[in-house]
């Protein structure tokens, strides 16, 4: 006894018509949500460093977010900074969001370097407190470029 076969119909819907795929299409390498998380401590420039703007990040750090005025204005600028960072930095196997979270919370111990597969320098960071803080500052200034090289 054989089972009757039904003709296979091909699904010609586009990404925009399939809700789950539409949400996957909008995945970014620099999350707006993470940007807002860093904005909370943004008077230190953390969100600007995250979006690949080290010069204004340093300016925010040394001026308290331009006396908090620039920090408040950044509330509306974060989505455009996220889009710009998404265009500027390539996608790949390493997640920018995770690497930045690891840098902020475990950077002095080299957590972000372990994640990026830089095991020798990660162990050096672990044993020296992020090369006595100097390496940690260097990574804050250059992490996006380091990730882009690994992609």
What's the short story on this structure?
The protein is an all-alpha fold and 151 residues long.
Report on the architecture of this protein.
This protein has 151 residues and is mostly helical. It folds into two domains: 28-88, no CATH class; 90-151, no CATH class. Helix content is 68%, strand content 0%. The chain has helices spanning 19-25, 32-40, 46-50, 54-67, 69-88, 96-106, 111-115, 119-132, 134-150. Helix 2 (32-40) runs antiparallel to helix 5. The longest helix has 20 residues, at 69-88. The N and C termini lie far apart (54 Å).
Q: How much helix, percentage-wise, in residues? A: 55-70%
The total number of structural domains is: 2
Distance between the termini: 54 Å
What is the general shape? globular
Outline the low-pLDDT stretches. Answer: 18-25
Category from helices, strands and their pairing: mainly alpha
* Largest beta-sheet details: none
Total beta strands:
0
Helix and strand arrangement:
Blueprint: H1 19-25, H2 32-40, H3 46-50, H4 54-67, H5 69-88, H6 96-106, H7 111-115, H8 119-132, H9 134-150
Helix pairs in contact: 2-5, 4-5, 6-9
Brief descriptors of the model:
151 residues; 9 helices; 68% helix
């Amino acid at each position: 006894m054989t089972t009757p076969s039904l003709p296979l119909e091909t699904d010609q819907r586009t990404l925009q018509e399939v809700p789950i795929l539409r949400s996957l299409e909008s995945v970014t390498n620099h999350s707006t949500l993470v940007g807002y998380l860093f904005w909370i401590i943004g008077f230190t420039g953390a969100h600007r460093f995250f979006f690949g703007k080290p010069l204004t990040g340093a300016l925010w750090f040394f001026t308290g977010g331009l006396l908090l005025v620039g920090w408040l204005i950044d509330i509306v600028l974060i989505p455009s900074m996220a889009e710009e960072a998404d265009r500027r930095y390539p996608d790949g196997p390493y997640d920018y969001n995770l690497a930045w979270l690891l840098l902020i919370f475990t950077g002095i111990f080299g957590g972000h370097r372990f994640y990026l597969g830089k095991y020798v320098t990660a162990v050096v960071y672990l044993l020296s407190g992020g090369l006595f803080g100097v390496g940690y500052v260097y990574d804050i200034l250059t992490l996006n470029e380091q990730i882009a090289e690994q992609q």
